[in-house]
User: What shape does this take?
Amino acid sequence: MAKIVDIGRKPDVKRRAVATGTILLRPTTARAIRDGPVEKGDVLVSAEVAALHAMKSVWQVLPHCHPIPITAADVSFDVRADRIVVTTNVALVTVWDMVKSLEKDSKGQYPSARIEDVRVVEKAKSQRP
Assistant: This one.
């Protein structure tokens, strides 16, 4: 039986988390993102908004996560020749959604595109002053 853990007596703590991941794309798609916008709009702006929204809403989609006040957030993109490295991972899915028409081959498949190397780079917490 699942239950929500009582955190009422836990002290507030300052938290920091950083995650990164990569979406591999065709070089022409990466160039289209850099030159932008693509058919659906500005990929990086949309991905940044999606990532920030996800950070603020994580407690609404993870069933055992309590509301956590977010006081600062950052999203960064490193657009390379055939990939984009992102510091938040909802942004990766947003990039994919916006450029999948550019990645589709003649058979309707996506042989080049893949999201990989998603990992937590840092997670830290400390007592608040």
